[in-house]
Amino acid sequence: MPVPEYVRQIREKIGHELLFMPGVIAIIMNERGETLIHLRADTKTWALVGGILEPGEEPAPATAREVWEEVGLHVEPEQIVGV
Description:
By secondary structure, the protein is of the alpha+beta class. Helices cover 28% and strands 14% of the residues. Strands 1-4 form a two-stranded antiparallel ribbon. Strands 2-3 form a two-stranded antiparallel sheet.
């Protein structure tokens, strides 16, 4: 996944200083209790589906968007399990 434009703009101003960016991760399980993981394009490692929030975005819509973008599934988040 390419770096979002707003992150590029921030990086132009602050360089490589520490940048906190809220993120979401979806734990998607099927009826057999199996958990969905995917092969990340950037690191070539297996991981839960997730990503960073866009400016002004809430966690539930961000989670649904990230799942759609990464694995093509439409989901409706049921609960937040940690912050």
